Amino acid sequence: MEIISLDRGDDVMIKAVFGVVTRSEAASRVQPIERTLEAYTSMIRFQFPGEHDESAVAVVDGTPVGLAQAFFPDRENQDKCWVELEVDPQHRGRGVGSGLLEWLEERGRGGGRSMVLGEVYVPVGARESHADREFALNRGYAVSSVEIVRSLPLPVHPDLLARERGRVAATTDGYTLSVHVGGVPHELRQGVCDCANRLMLDAPTGDVEFEPDSQTVDDYQTMLDHLTDVGRTLVTTVAVHRESGVVAAYTDLVLDGSDPNFVFQWGTLVLPEHRGHHLGMAVKVENLTALSRIDSARTSVQTTNAEQNPWMVQINRSLGFEIIEEALSVRKDL
To answer: What is the pTM of this model?
Structure first.
């Protein structure tokens, strides 16, 4: 086996890696995401502002059989790197994953990072026994927290949305809610960035501590341009506090152009000083209502929440989200 750096300009290699990732996710995930080669190519060639990444391919007899990616924040959390590992199912158990993981850890050390973070997806009920968990633990990783992956069948019944909207109406009276497709207007962007930058800070993360993100308005536009390039549509609901004009809460849904059935639930956050008004439920209800108008053919929304986040867990349960798998957040100190 040979491990080589991924040449992002090599269309032939990226096509082969796309096949590896597709087969790996089909074998490992309960609800794998469908992607086109074109969308995957745009994604793997894109670098988000404020971070850089390095990727390597495991090659056996001239054929790519695995992919490793390391993501390095450049502004905050510079003691950490995030890693992703995919191995073709037909080549698992032959040292490919171990070799790629060693490569990732070497890249982390070389980048001055002291902690490697990743996720291991397992079926419900298998968090203590799954082979992928054992793979991580046997190589020095520890489970730091558990994220629960949930899926919401669509469409959500209008009566359920009306019930929840009515239930929170009194406590959200001091806020104006609005829905935006393709990004929020410029006057709301700093406020949305301020909320989004708290996601890593406020979400339960076990024994790993994070600094807030530093997304800027320019970064937000770069993200919107990237979503357009890969055929994704962003739907955002914001709650603005009428007295102060502050963006108090927001939530994002992303419609994937490669998979006509699937919707990603991205971030949802309420600023600490505005909690207790049921804004989390309010913005989610409005976004789901808008989704039914924008694309009524979608069949499911997928979201992930920390097991230790009872407020968001309860919102998702009330809306009808069902548990489909678990994501074990793992860490290793280098």
So the answer is: 0.94
